[in-house]
Design a protein that fits this description.
64 residues; 2 strands; globular; 16% strand; two-stranded parallel ribbon; alpha+beta
């Protein structure tokens, strides 16, 4: 039996509405890291992805 990283659980939070099933994601704006898997997952669920660019993003807005 192979043991490896399965990607773990995915949790989504927002301030617009309750997410109870995948169709509730349609049209929401969800921030993701710059990686293929989370970006494809958000698109597949019908949400709009916003890329989180890490510390470069925070420095740009002088948040750190």
């Amino acid at each position: 039996m192979t043991i490896g990283n399965t990607g773990g659980w995915r949790n989504f939070a927002n301030t617009k509405r309750r997410i109870a099933n995948p169709s509730d994601m349609k049209g929401l704006k969800i921030r993701t890291v710059v990686a293929d898997l989370p970006q494809e997952l958000v698109r597949a669920l019908g949400a709009h992805q916003l890329l989180f660019l890490g510390l470069n993003y925070l420095h740009h807005f002088k948040l750190v």
